[in-house]
Structures are given as C-alpha cells and as structure tokens.
Write a structure and sequence with these properties.
single chain; 396 residues; alpha/beta; Sulfate adenylyltransferase; Rossmann fold; 3 domains; five-stranded parallel sheet; 37% helix; 20% strand
Length: 396
C-alpha cells in the first residue's frame, strides 16, 4: 500500500524487509526485537541471547542521506513509516537511535572486513552509520502461513521427526536426489528450504522450484515433503550461516538439520574437524545437526556412492559439481543422465531456450521411435527422448 505521508519515513530495501519479516514471524528466536545499543555491545562479546546462540547483533541501520537526516532528527516516541520502492511496508516507533561503525558490523557478521569479500562488497553501501530500535510492524503474513502449513502437515502425518535441508539446487542433480532420499528415510517429514537469493545470475528461483516440485510429485511420497522458499538476504552471509539455518529450521518446527554438499556459506567440503568447531559454537539451539557425505559417481562401483565408503581413488569419481553442470546448460548441452535425470534436464533446457528448435516435429519424427500416429511434441518431449536415444545400446 502507498505511504500515508502522515509520518516521516525510513527507506529500506527488499533484503531488510525479508530479515525484519523473519524477526516478526518469530523465526529468529531467541531474538524477538531490534536491538538497542546496550544489547548490541553485549551481543558483540557473547554471541548469546538469553543463553542461546545468535551470530551477530540484529540491527536496523539503513544507509542513505535521507535516512541519516531523519534518524539524526527524530524524537523518542515518534513513528516512522518503513518504505520500500515507494510503498509503505511497515512502521517503527522510535525508542533509541545510536551511532554504529559499519565496518565493525560487517566484521561481526562476516568474520572479515576485506572489501573484496563478496558479502562485504555487496553490503557495505547498504549499512548506514545510525541504527534504530523500537516496536516494529512489517509484512510477514506469508511466513506465518508457511509456519501454519508445516504445523498442519506435521499433525496430519503424525510426524515426530521433522528434518530440514537447505539447498540451492542450482541446478538440481542426482546427488541432490540421493541426499533427499537418505534424509527422508530417517524422517517422518522433510522440509526443504530452497534458497532464494536477491542477485541470481544462474537459474531463477521459479525454475529451480519447478524442477524440485516435479521431482517430489513424481518420485517421492509428496505428503511427506514440503518446499519452503528461504530468501537469502544479507543476514545469511558469512561463516555463521549454519547457526542461522539451525535457528530458522528449529523455529519452523524441525528436529534435525541436515547439511548437504552444497550447503551455501559453509564451504567445508566435509572437513569434519571444521564441522565440529562450527557446531561447538551453537548453544541452546534445540536441534540435531547431521552432516551428510559427499556423493560421487564411481566408474568402478558403477553407481552413486559416498566418498567415505568408496575404496577407489578420486580419479575414478565423477563429481556432481553444480557449476560445471550449470555450464553445460548455459552452453545448451544436455547433461548425461548419470548427472541429471532426463526429465529434469528437459524442464531446464526448454525453459532456458524456448522456441530454440525449428522444425521440431521433423526432428522428432526422423530421430525418435514413436507410435506412428500424428502427434504434436514439445521441446521438453524432445530432450527427454534425445536422452533415451543417447542411452540406447549399440548394435556392436
């Protein structure tokens, strides 16, 4: 809705709305409010809120000349509108305004102040010199609806063990399938948090969600799996991301968080010692953390295996490297079915390159076995059948 213009305004962006929405929906508990200066100082030292881990002080410090002018002249008790893209999205009643050091804040969040770090680089200009605390209103209805949906599904299925996976699925491949199935085997209900970044030059969130939805509805018991969008805002950057993932998963009602091979921001690549050092930081978060294995295809075992159980060297392994598979798609190449299920590749390629194949009916009829009847075929059908043709056994 449009701003009432009765109040002065603070101008925020979509990332701030996302973080504030998580706060208001209770998904960042033990943090339940914007922190004041005293709380910020305590948090910087302890990284605890009421004895429970939280990775950094939760502040609202929007940048910009107009915001700074408002914050340096506002009175305690004054109400400010929160405005994003000329739309009023909430409000805040001022309790305290205090100066912060943006570089110190970034260091606290990301563990470095190196301007070349991607988190620092993308967020340095977003953080202002003044933070504000006080009662907050912000849109968060969708988050509450998702919480309710998970609770209803748990009740309907009688789920005692609810597991969470956080993944980008960019792109979705066979190792993701194995991870999901093995996680589901140990769970009554699986919640997949699908990352939704704000700056994405690869596969769109909508396409990745479509692919995941197809896999769930065709190859899994769909009443035991739910996909939840997780907006990957600035608060998820840095080495403390695993702590936030655990907090959010627990507040959504999950008992277990399983860390997969593409868990964003961890970059452990299954260094068990570092796994433990990260997990030891977590205090009071009532959730179990499971570390999944790295999956590869072994040309000796001729199947998908864990690197912890396969006796053959890495030179026998095909890695499920998302960036390399993504490069095949960007080149318009159909990945081998050992890497990605043919139906999944068909969805992705037909979406990336719509109307790419001229004279598709002739191609289809010349190259593919068919019923002999007059039929129409989509580009998606063509890619599926082309994969089958690649897998046809040679006559020799």
């Amino acid at each position: 809705m449009a701003s009432s213009r009765k109040n002065r305004a603070l101008y925020i962006d979509e990332q701030a709305i996302s973080a504030l929405g998580l706060l208001k929906a209770g998904l960042l508990y033990p943090v339940t409010e914007l922190m004041n200066k005293a709380q910020m100082e305590v948090m910087c030292e302890s990284r605890l809120v009421n004895g429970i881990s939280f990775p950094f002080p939760f502040l609202l410090a929007p940048s910009g000349k107009v915001n700074e002018e408002v914050l340096t002249s506002v009175a305690v008790g004054e109400t400010l509108d929160l405005v994003c893209n000329k739309e009023r999205v909430g409000s805040i009643i001022i309790e305290e305004v205090f100066e912060i050091d943006p570089k110190r804040r970034l260091l606290t969040m990301y563990g470095t102040d190196d301007i070349n770090h991607p988190g620092i680089l993308s967020n340095f200009e977003r953080i202002g010199r003044y933070a504000v605390s006080g009662p907050l209103q912000i849109r968060h209805e969708e988050l509450l609806a998702t919480k309710a949906q998970i609770a209803e599904l748990k009740a309907a299925t009688g789920a005692n063990i609810t597991n969470a996976l956080v993944m980008a699925a960019n792109p979705f491949h066979r190792a993701h399938e194995r991870l999901i199935r093995q996680t589901l085997e140990k769970s009554d209900l699986l919640v997949i948090f699908l990352l939704k970044p704000y700056h994405n030059a690869d596969l769109t969130f909508e396409l990745r969600a479509k692919v995941l939805d197809y896999f769930i509805h065709h190859f899994l018991p769909k009443n035991r799996v739910i996909v939840v969008p997780l907006e990957s805002s600035y608060i998820f950057g840095g080495y403390n991301e695993i702590i936030l993932d655990a907090i959010i998963a627990r507040n959504y009602g999950c008992n277990i968080l399983t860390i997969g091979q593409n868990h964003a921001g961890v970059n452990l690549y299954y260094d068990r010692r570092l796994d433990q050092s990260l997990l030891e930081k977590m205090q009071g978060i009532d959730i179990q953390i499971d570390i999944a294995s790295e999956y590869v295809y072994c040309n000796i075992c001729t199947t998908l295996v864990s690197t912890h159980t396969c006796p053959h060297g890495r030179h026998h392994h095909i890695s499920y490297a998302s960036d390399s598979i993504l490069k095949l798609y960007k080149l318009g190449i159909l990945p081998p079915a050992v890497l990605v299920r043919k139906e999944i590749s068909a969805i992705i390629l037909s979406s990336l390159y719509p109307n790419r194949l001229e004279g598709i009916e002739k191609l289809y009829n010349d190259l593919m076995p068919h019923s002999g009847l007059l039929e129409s075929h989509s580009e998606r059908d063509f890619y599926v059948e082309l994969t089958r043709l690649h897998q046809t056994t040679s006559l020799t």
